Amino acid sequence: MTDIKLLEKYIIELLNTPSPTGYTEHVLNYIKETLESIGVDYKIGNKGTLVATIEGEDINKGITLSSHIDTLGAIVKEVKSNGRLAINQIGGYMMHAVEGENVLVHCRNGKKYEGTLQTLRPSIHIHGNEAKDLPRECKNYEIIIDEEVFTKDDVNDLGIEVGDIISFDTRLKITESGFIKSRYLDDKASVGAVLYTINYIKSNNIKPKCNLNFLFSNYEEVGHGSSSFIPKDTAEFIAIDMGCPGEGQNSTEYDVCICSKDSNGPYDYEFVNELIEVCRTKNINYKLDIYPNYGSDATAALKAGLDAKFALIGPGVFASHGYERTHIKSIIETIKLIVEYVRL
Predict the structure, then answer these.
(1) Does the annotation count 236 as an active-site position?
(2) CA quadruple 128, 132, 138, 144: dihedral positive or negative?
(3) Percent of the chain clearing pLDDT 70 (strictly above)
(4) Core vs surface per residue 288-318: b (16+ CB within 10 A) or e
(5) 0.90 cut: is pTM over it?
(6) Gap between the Cα atoms of 315 and 186, Å rounded
(7) Of 13, 57, 161, 220, which residue is the catalytic one?
(8) Is 280 helix (H, G, I), strand (E, B) or coil?
């Protein structure tokens, strides 16, 4: 069923396209070009949400499947007098997870500059225990720009300003054993899975049981991704995001993970049961789990007033919001569940 090379191609190209929340134009263009090459119609809302639709047998009912194209990142808070940059976080992550990471500063004039995120006490040889004991808070980090800059004016002359977006190096690596290691597998592993699913459905002339609306949101990491532009025919809403393997969790990096509850409460009980039944009857490897510190696009849609059954599924992503890892098996099982659930 699965063309691994095509699936990896989608994931690699997505991960190599920086898209912190608020800076998603380039990855949106990638989605548009991919959909056009497949031959699927789409529309784009005022906020930048894209919805691609494949008509089904029942044209009066729709299943909306969301995935988000935005990622964590940062923004320039201050150009400092010493030519370095103070930052503010975009999305929720631990600062030590990006300490020492290479970055790109995306200027509004279109230029990009490389740099490194360091603490204010980056050298053990200079700062000793102060380097170890410095609280890992955003205020104690700065970006060292890879240009000969020494003053605020030097930086301004480059075109770097307060409000410029910062993306972190993904450090993407795919191993021979099938593991994918990268930042932002949340949610680009699932976006890749969704693009592959769309291509698979179209290439194999699969007739869905009802209209399929593939919603690509662009503000999920800050809480309001799918709060608007949801197709009116939506009777069921599935967030295609990630599972969270780890200590005390049932999720793994090898199965599709089905969430029964997150920080906003339980997902639709009967809908979850339907997805479990598909997995059982179609021999799809799955794990059921709860995530007490997690919210999804399904939650955003519900809070915006959506009247629909709702669920959350996705590949298991270890070390979420850090340097993440999953296995290709988990992504494949996610694709299988989507395809088997939506087909006639």
Answers:
(1) no
(2) positive
(3) 100
(4) bbbbeebbbbbbbbbeeebebbbbbbbbbbb
(5) yes
(6) 9
(7) 220
(8) helix
